[in-house]
Each structure stands twice: as structure tokens, then as C-alpha cells.
Amino acid sequence: MTSQTSSPALDSNAGDRAPRDEVNRPEILPLMGNEAIARGAWEAGVRVAAAYPGTPSTEIMESLARFPAEDVKAEWATNEKVALDVAIGASFSGARALTSMKHVGLNVAADALMSQTYIGVNGGLVLVVCDDPGIHSSQNEQDTRIYGQLAMVPVLEPSDAQEALDFTRLAFDLSERFDTPVIVRGTTRLSHTRSLVQIGERTEKPSLGFNENPQKNVMIPGHARLRHSALFKREEQLRQYFEESDLIRWEQGSQPIGIVTLSTAYTYVKELLPQAHVLKLGASYPLPENKLREFCDSVERVIVVEELEPIVENEMKLMGLNVEGKSLFPREGEFSTDVIRAGFEKAGILPASRSRPELFVQAMPRPPLLCAGCPHTGAYMALRALDARVSGDIGCYTLAAVEPLKAIDTTVAMGSSIANATGMALTGTETRPIVATIGDSTFLHAGIPPLINAVYNQVNITVVLLDNHITAMTGGQDHPGTGRNLRGEAVHKVDYEDLIRSLGITWIKKIDAYNMGNVYQYLREATLHKGVAVVIMDRPCVLDPVKIKGSSFRVNQEACTGCQTCMNLGCPSLSWTDELFEGHRKVKIDESSCIGCSLCAQVSSTNCILPVEAFETNG
Ligand SMILES: Cc1ncc(C[n+]2csc(CCOP(=O)(O)OP(=O)(O)O)c2C)c(N)n1
To answer: If residue 554 lies in a helix (H) or strand (E), which one and from where to where?
Structure first.
């Protein structure tokens, strides 16, 4: 399952690549930011691209996979570090390479980045990292630009889809010219906004071949010390470049106010203060100090408008420049025209707005819910009944932490569940059975080392592997456990039972996640086992590859006592009747959304839920 695109040249499944002459035609297309990034990389002659999915970055690799296979090998990797290392390997071999990830993915990949920045590149190496201001779909809100400073690699900051293409293309040139990995930083707003983009042709980059240079390619202390000094020279060269580059754009205004801004914040500034002087930074690291000084000298007051952390503001203050920024704008959450307007009002630059009529009807807040028939539901229902201490992980199943399932006690980061459970077990103070729950994609991403560690350290924990045969949370991407790659080709499929057994675990049960009797029974048995026990919940996601729909179920209203057991599943197809029957409501099922998983019928205490056919035959 891949995301939709509207680009004629790109509009196909990842498996069906577009013919070469079709994609090479220059034209103007409406592209999503992520598609534009993919296009920019392809035009730059990228040969190898690898990623692990993560909102808002996922469509970059899906889009790249639609370009001709002979141009670019675009692959899903098992995690972001693996993806970056694959790209690094391709760069070593002289090809242009790209990896893309969400902001937290860079935490996983950071170890490799922090060495690679010393090594530099052979073929151009670009990391596209997409931040999630406002935490629409993540576990935190960190600002990738701090990694740019830490790794001393240039960070380019497109503000719209055209720049997404242009900056990505340029990033490869900068990478080779300055011998550095380059970060192209996006945000949700950039990734998922669509606008008209002038596309170009692909520039073929013949392979540079492997560069035999152990002093540069092998990071042992003696080499790393020399390379560390090279970073400071490189930083200075990049600074000089940005001083002159048109990535830094000074837009003359008629007001005595100067705004320094970047990324999508630029577009809000232009909308609100069309008359201000604007210094638009196409790159946030390293900063062009002379240009910034000149700009500050030319206006009476300088305000920095940047989403998330005060990176540019603090740097400018360190330069001794008198600027304002986070005293006016929040350091958290996503920017919008309203947020920026409020800051300018506080600064006295815009008149305080009267209470404005609501322009949009606010959508009713909806609680996050697992899908009707989600195979993760039963396991959590059972774990609640077992009164287990559940360490959770990241995936659709994280939603079982909230009402009504409320069956997860902790969730930290991808792959944390098993080691968190291990730590709980090591304390010896937990009286409840300790259970880690983890999805199949997350298990392959970062769940295997902690499972080895749990066996090694001889703890008593149960691991529930929620195998829905897909990466559901990010839209249904394949992974090594699905037996298909990004191009839709059949590849080796990981056998979880064999894998887990090979780690020294003897208690393994694979069960159908829809068989509630087995789910209760085997989870209970697993928690009584001494050592590490693994239960594999085996059932495909209801949305993969198309929505699965079996026979719907219906409530026999006469028999329903309103006992609530079925409602505890949190299934969105179930709701209470509006009318009262002898003082209480009964349950009804929306038959159009019910997919017939039968979980509600199985847990019902009065056997009042039956397939619709049962009602039809009984009249
Ligand atoms: C480090 C990191 N990379 C990527 C993501 C995005 N992401 C969230 S959950 C998830 C995987 C979910 O797949 P799975 O574990 O199989 O559970 P499912 O959603 O299918 O139930 C991904 C890729 C993330 N949150 N953190």
C-alpha cells in the first residue's frame, strides 16, 4: 500500500516504475513537498536511496521508487541507522545517495552520522529529515537543526515544494563540493503541502568509483583527530559560501522592521508583513554572520521568526546582535498565520486584532481509536484481564493505552518495550506479570537486540509480538517480515518463530489474534513461564492490502443487558442506543463498518451478538 500522488509522471504504484522518457519531460506539476524532494534527488542523479517509514517523511521513498529502476535503487531498510549506513556505503562506492526519515529517526541514525561527518563523502550524501512541529504523529517534537550543529553539517531549509526540489538537488552538489553529508530539513507543513513545481531533467552522474583513502574512510582515533580539525575548516568554507549564495535572500521592504526567517515560517511572515525587510535563510547552519550583521545594521528592529527552538536567535545573540524571537513566539507547537500574528501583535508591529469571528468551524475533537476489527484489540483486552504490567511500543497498538482498553502502562521510543520490561523485571518489585507488546515492523526495527538481552539476563517476561503483517501506523509499508520489498517484489520472509527460537527462547506460541479463547489461555500460560516467553499474535491488518470485510454482526436487542463487556473493546462499530430500555441503553453495531472479526461476539457475556445471517434465517 503506498500513498497517493497526483503527478502524472509519478502516479503509479511503487512496483510500476515510470518509463524514462515520461519522467524526463520538463514541465510544471502540482507536487507534494515529499514528491518534490524525491524529484530533486532523482534530477540530481541519485543512484541509491534507503529509508525507514515515518510520518511526515514516508512518501519521499515511495515517490523515489516510482522512478525508473535503472536510475535509482530505492529501498525500505529495517531502521534509520541501517538506511543511513546503506546510503553511506553507496557514497563510499562513488554514487550519489539519499536517506530520508522523520526527526526521531535521526536519533537512531545519529551514531553513524556523527562519524560520517568526519569522513565526509565520495558520492554526494543527503539526509532528508522531516520534523513534526505540533506532534501530529510522533513521540516528541525535537528540532533537527540541533543535529546539524552537533554534526557540523549544513542544514538546508526549503519553505515550499519548489524549494524542496531545488534545495534537494543543490544539496548533492554542496555535499560533493564541501565533502560533507548535507541535511535537508523539512516539516509536516512542507512535506504534505502541494504546490506548482517547475521540474527539470535528470543529470546523470557517472560513478566516481571507490576512493582508496584509509585515513579518511576508517575512523580510528588517529585518523579521527585529523578529520575533526577538517570540520572547522569546512564550517568556515560553508559559511563563506552561504554569505554569497542566493540561498540567503534579502528582500527589501519599506518598514524599519527586519525579519530573519526560514522554512515555512517565511510564508506566514510574507502574508502578514509584506512591507517588512526580510532576510530569508535557505540554510540554518552555518549562518552567514556578515550578512546577518549587515541586515541588522540596516533596520531599527530585528525579529527572528523560527519554528521550534531559538537556534538562529541564539546564534545571532552570540554574535552580539540585538534580536528578539522567542519572547514573542512559542518554542513549541506548529506555527500558523494566527500564531505569528499574535507574536507581531505582542511586539506592537501589528495592531491588536479584535476578537475575530471563527473563520472555520472547529472540528469536534475525536478520541484516537483502533480500527473496527483491529487484530491488536484482543491481546490488550486479555492483558487487562490478566492485570499485567504492560510496557508498550510505537505503532497503531499504542492507542490501546487510552480508554476504553487502557492496557498499556509505558511507551518510550521504537523498540523500547522489551528492554523496559527487562528493567522492570530486574527490580524484583513488580507483583504483576510483566509483558512487553511490540509490532512486527517495530520488532525488526529495534526489538531484536533487547530480546537477545532479555534472554541473556534471564528475566521472567512475556513478549507479545503483534504481527499484523505490515507497518500499519505509517500507511502500510512492507518490511522484511512481509516477504515483499518497496518495489513489490517477492523476497525472503522472516520466520519469526525460527528467529526467536535461535535466540534461545523455548516457550513460543503463534496464535490467531481473533481467537479470544486462545489469546486468554496462552497469554496466561506465557506469564506463568519462568524465563522469556513469546506469544505471536498472527492476523493481517484489516486495512491490508484492501479493507477486509467479512459478514457483519448484529446485537439481539432483547438479549442485550448493557453489560458493557463488548464496549470495552473500544470498537468504533459499536455504540450505545439512543433510547433507554428499562432505564439502560443497549449496544448497537454499525453493520457497514463492522468487518466481522467476531471479537465482540466472543467476549459478550450474554451471547447476544451474532452474524447478521443468523437474524435473517431466524426471521
Ligand atoms: C524512530 C522512529 N522511526 C519511525 C517512526 C514512525 N513509526 C511509528 S510506529 C511505526 C511502525 C509501526 O509498525 P508496527 O510496529 O508493525 O505496528 P502497527 O502500526 O503495524 O500496528 C513507525 C514506522 C517512529 N515513531 N520512530
So the answer is: strand 553-555
Pocket probe for ligand 1: among 380, 393, 411, 414, the residue whose CB has the most ligand atoms within 8 Å is 414
DSSP designation for 510:
E
Q: Is the CB of 395 under 6 A from ligand 1?
A: yes
Q: From the CB of 471, is ligand 1 less than 6 Å away?
A: yes
Residues facing residue 250 across a β-bridge: 279
- Give residue 4's pLDDT: 35
> Which cell numbers hold the place of 123?
558520492
How many Cα neighbours within 13 Å face the side chain of 101? 26
C-alpha torsion 421→568→394→306, nearest 10: -130
For ligand 1, atom 1, the nearest C-alpha belongs to 105
Residue type, 385: A
Please state the separation of Cα 49 from the chain's center in Å: 17
Q: Which residue's C-alpha comes closest to atom 20 of ligand 1?
A: 472
159 lines ligand 1 (CB under 6 A): no
pLDDT for the residue numbered 544: 79
Centre of ligand 1 to C-alpha 574, Å, is 27
Does pTM surpass 0.70? Answer: yes
- Is 414 close to ligand 1, i.e. is its CB under 6 Å away? yes
Ligand 1 touching residue 394 (CB < 6 A) = yes
Helix (H) or strand (E) holding 462: strand 461-467
Of ligand 1's atoms, which has the minimum distance to the CA of residue 105? 1
Distance 512 CA to ligand 1 centre (A): 22
Q: Give the domains, in start order, of the chain with CATH numbers.
A: 20-243 (3.40.50.970), 248-346 (3.40.50.920), 377-538 (3.40.50.970), 553-617 (3.30.70)
In the chain (619 residues long), the average pLDDT of successive 10-residue segments reads 36 54 78 98 98 98 96 98 98 98 98 98 98 95 98 98 98 98 97 95 94 96 96 98 97 95 97 96 98 98 98 98 98 96 96 66 74 97 97 97 95 98 97 98 98 98 98 96 95 98 98 97 98 98 83 94 94 93 91 95 95 79
CA angle 77, 78, 79 (to 5 degrees): 90
